[in-house]
Specification:
The chain has helices at 2-33, 41-65, 76-109, 111-117, 120-141, 167-202, 221-230, 240-276, 284-305, 310-324, 328-341, 345-350, 367-376; strands at residues 73-75, 151-153. By secondary structure, it is mostly helical.
Length: 389
């Protein structure tokens, strides 16, 4: 039974590593080769961090976790290098996710401010900030390590087994800076995004006459956002279709936030408990499980932060068409269908609780529909605005 569990565990670790390698590589290639997608700087940076983790960190994690490599011995310097990569890449990945959530917030809630202030220089400064903060946090983990040419088993070359004199203090600081604070930011940001999207959809519901007098409504983006954020009228009763749309938006947000918590909460909870609780015995199997649950984030992130963007999906569809030699007309048909049914995550939130129009066949929208979409559409967060031909 233990041999079967060992084989299954090894296969799962190898599968996660291969998935992280392929998914992050594909996302990076699509973003870098498409000029209109090069504004996805932080998404591309997240793919770079996760790809580096899949190249360096996850294979070393397999060696540390599998009993097949029990006889592998690391020197003190090699163990320090492994822990340095571990903490640095984990910090960079989580901090990048936090910045992506803040960027999405400004795309939706303050679109005009974003267009003015979000520059390449600011994005590069954000990337530099992520790496400087990650390196500084990692250096704290190496404080108090013994000097010399000692050796240790690969299975004991982890943060839990670290011989650093200030390991417990580091774990607390590491958990606060790289998990607790980012979690608060992510929860606050996505709750605000959903609230704005929901109120935007409620504007389309007729307001009872006694609730408010008719008022002129401008169609500009700035006025729409102002109305959304300042309106304090009683909320009208939701129609069934809008209620279902609200549930879909909530489910989307739960998936995004839930994926982050499911991957990282066990990891940080384990290390916090091991540093605070007295008399804990050995990390062993428990540490291996929570570590690989956290590593699974490197393979899942490309799907949650890449494929949820409609433009990236369309570029992947074009790549698939070119590989399969699919006719252009069929590809255009799929593009129209995807744009109406499988909306971008952020488009979907902006239109949350609104009825989604599903097209059974590839029929170009009428001029009236195009006009309505133009009036109701917000700038697409995380994407370059599409030019109408």
């Amino acid at each position: 039974q233990s041999i079967a569990q060992e084989v299954v565990g090894l296969l799962c670790m190898v599968l996660l590593t291969l998935t992280a390698l392929v998914a992050n590589t594909v996302m990076m290639v699509v973003i870098l080769k498409t000029p209109l997608l090069r504004k996805f700087i932080f998404v591309c940076h997240l793919c770079v961090v996760d790809l580096l983790s899949a190249i360096f960190l996850m294979p070393l994690g397999i060696i540390s976790s599998s009993s097949c490599f029990n006889r592998v011995i690391y020197s003190i310097a090699e163990c320090q290098a492994l822990i340095f990569l571990n903490i640095c890449f984990i910090s960079a990945s989580i901090l990048t996710i936090s910045i992506i959530s803040v960027e999405r917030y400004y795309y939706i809630v303050h679109p005009m401010r974003y267009e003015v202030k979000m520059t390449i220089r600011l994005a590069v400064a954000g990337v530099i900030f992520i790496w400087v903060k990650s390196v500084l946090i990692t250096v704290l983990a190496l404080v108090g390590w013994p000097q010399g040419n000692g050796a240790t088993s690969a299975s004991r070359c982890t943060v839990y087994w670290s011989p650093g004199a200030h390991k417990n203090i580091f774990v607390i600081i590491f958990s606060i800076v790289c998990f607790i604070l980012p979690t608060i930011i992510i929860l606050a940001v996505y709750c605000s995004v959903y609230r704005v999207a929901r109120m935007a959809s409620l504007q389309q519901v007729p307001v009872p006459a006694q609730a408010a007098a008719p008022r002129h409504r401008s169609d500009s983006i700035a006025s729409q956002v102002t109305i959304i954020t300042t309106r304090n009228l009683p909320l009208p009763r939701l129609m069934p279709e809008r209620f279902l749309g609200s549930n879909k938006a909530i489910l989307t947000l739960v998936l995004i936030v839930g994926q982050f918590l499911c991957c990282w909460l066990p990891f940080f909870a384990f290390h916090l408990h091991s540093s605070v609780a007295t008399g804990t015995v050995g990390g062993g199997h428990g540490e291996m499980v929570v570590t690989w649950i956290a590593y699974s984030s490197f393979a899942i992130n490309p799907f949650f932060y890449g494929l949820l963007n409609r433009q990236i999906r369309e570029e992947l569809a074009r790549l698939r068409r070119s590989c399969l030699n699919r006719p252009l007309g069929q590809e255009l048909c799929l593009s129209v269908s995807e744009a109406s049914v499988q909306e971008n995550f952020l488009q979907f939130l902006q239109r949350a609780t609104c009825t989604l129009e599903t097209h059974a066949s590839c029929i170009s929208p009428s001029p009236r529909n195009r006009l309505d979409q133009t009036k109701m559409g917000f700038p697409i967060p995380g994407q370059v605005p599409e030019e109408s031909s």
